[in-house]
Each structure stands twice: as structure tokens, then as C-alpha cells.
Amino acid sequence: MNHMDKTPKKYSVITIFPEVIEHYAGASILGRGQKAGAIKIEALNLRDYTELRHNQVDDTPYGGGAGMVLMAPPIYKAVETLVGPRDRRPTNTQVILMDPRGEPLTQKIARELSQLDHLVIICGRYEGIDERVREHLVDRTISVGPYVLSGGELPALTVIEATARLVPGVLGKEESLVQESHGTDETLEYPHYTKPADFRGYKVPDVLQSGDHAKIAAWRKQHSQKKSAR
Ligand code: SAH
After folding, report:
1. Over the stretch 29-40, which tens digit does the pLDDT of each residue have?
2. Which residues of the chain have pLDDT under 50?
3. Which of 58, 79, 90, 106 is the most interior residue, by most CB within 10 Å?
4. 158 CA to middle of ligand 1, Å?
């Protein structure tokens, strides 16, 4: 079956900055993947799901302290509008919270997530999100690294990009996945060079210009680092 025959893999991002997601998702590989019908990325404005005046979605933390916290009700409403209550969600759907305390994103997790039909991704902001979202609404929390960003939008885009490029029909040339870093054999990809062959006296290795495919393959293998060797 051709990938065009099936419904696109869908991403729904819940955020207070939908324009950030839309802009990035419209460019390059994600944009082409959407045009080709392999993926679909939608950004939902959290403010459309609040019942409070002035589109309020955040409030001060119980117990005091600095900053504002995103409230649970609009997030629950957005997620349940999309995929229903937690115990009756469609199969092959996951609701993910971007969270610096979450499980670190790896290529293995990206492969797992790339198999699902629908990912709902929640972006935090400010001091964070009411803990009841993490406790009772989401299936999984994911961190993009041991540092703190100001919002979940870049982390959400990181998850989308890492997973979408594994969906058939998204990358132009499928073989560009075959030899990649963190591929199934857990090696890091060999270094790449392109023209000019001599740039400020920095030369491209002779072997790569030799046309000897066996030698080139050997060089590349030698320069693909084992992860464990790092
Ligand atoms: N006060 C929180 C950080 C809030 S940062 C704490 O110390 O844990 C605001 C939001 O940005 C988070 O809710 C999360 O959605 C997002 N975010 C920040 N850093 C992140 C990271 N490393 N991985 C994933 N999401 C992150």
C-alpha cells in the first residue's frame, strides 16, 4: 500500500502560541510532508477552550510563589474535544505533555511515537502546568533535555520533527534514513563533505574523492562512531 492511500499521521498541538507551531510546520520537510498528505499538523489555541472571561488560561499558584500556572480545565477541554476522555481514547493515539521532568526524548522513543496515528501534544508556559494534567490527563511526559526552556513549543516541534521524518513519504529520499545517526544499530553517522574540495586549505579526505566504493564504505564505517565509544 502506498502511503497516499492512508489517512495522514496527525499531530494536534495545544499551545497559547499557535502561530509559532504553524510557521515552523509550514516550512521544509514538515511543510512538504503535509502537502504530500503523509502528515497533518494542527495548532490549537488553548485560549479557545477556556470558559473564563478575557480568555484567561492561567492563574497564580496555590501556596504562593512566583509566576503563573496554566489551569487544568481548558487543557482538559481541548484534549477531550480532540480525543475524548482518557478511558475512551481511540487506539493508536497518545496525549503527550512536554515537561522538563519527563522521560528524555531518544531516537527509540521517536521510532515508537512515529508508529502512532495521532499525537496530541500539550505545551506548557510560565511556571508550568497544573499537576492534575500530568496526573490524570496525559499518557506520557517527555523532556527534550536537562535544561529549562520558557515554553513547550520548541520541545513539541522537536518531537514532531524527530517522529515525522520517520513516517513514510515525509523525507524525499527514503534511503537518507538508512545510514543515519542513532539508527537501529545505534551508531552515529559518518562525517559529510561537499564542494569545494579545498576550502581555506582544509581538504576533503582523498579517499572520498577516489571513486573506490569499497574504500569509501570502509572509511565511512570506520568513522561511524559506536555510541558506546563516545
Ligand atoms: N517551572 C518548571 C518549568 C516550566 S517551563 C520546572 O522547573 O520544571 C514552562 C514549560 O516549558 C513547561 O511546562 C514545558 O511545557 C516546557 N519546557 C521547558 N523546558 C522543557 C524541556 N526541557 N523539555 C520539555 N518541555 C520543556
Report:
1. 999 999 999 999
2. 1, 3, 227-228
3. 79
4. 14
Q: What is the pLDDT of residue 1?
A: 47
Q: What is the pLDDT of residue 210?
A: 97
Same domain for 208 and 129: no
15 Cβ partners below 8 Å, 6+ apart? 21, 43, 44, 45, 46, 123, 151, 152, 153, 156
Q: What's the confidence (pLDDT) of residue 226? A: 62
CATH of the domain at 203: 1.10.1270.20
Question: What are the phi and psi torsion angles at 58 (to 5°)?
Answer: -135, 160
Q: What is the pLDDT of residue 182?
A: 77
Spell out which residues line ligand 1, taking CB within 6 angstroms: 98-101, 123-125, 127-129, 143-145, 147-149, 151-152, 155
Residues 150 and 193 in one domain: no
Residue 228: per-residue pLDDT:
47
Give the residue numbers spanning the domain of 86. 9-164
Rounded Cα–Cα distance for residues 76 and 84 (Å): 10
Long-range CB pairs of 112-116, under 8 A, 24+ apart, other chains included: 113/159, 113/163, 114/9, 114/163, 114/164, 114/166, 114/167, 116/9, 116/92
Q: Could you tell me the distance, in angstroms and rounded to a whole number, from the CA of residue 214 to the centre of ligand 1?
A: 47
Residues 101 and 159 in one domain: yes
Residue 160 vs residues 2, 22, 33, 49, 220: alpha-carbon distances, Å: 22, 12, 12, 23, 29
Structural contact between residues 153 and 20, judged by C-beta atoms closer than 8 angstroms: yes
User: Is residue 187 within a helix (H) or strand (E), and if so which, with residue range?
Assistant: none
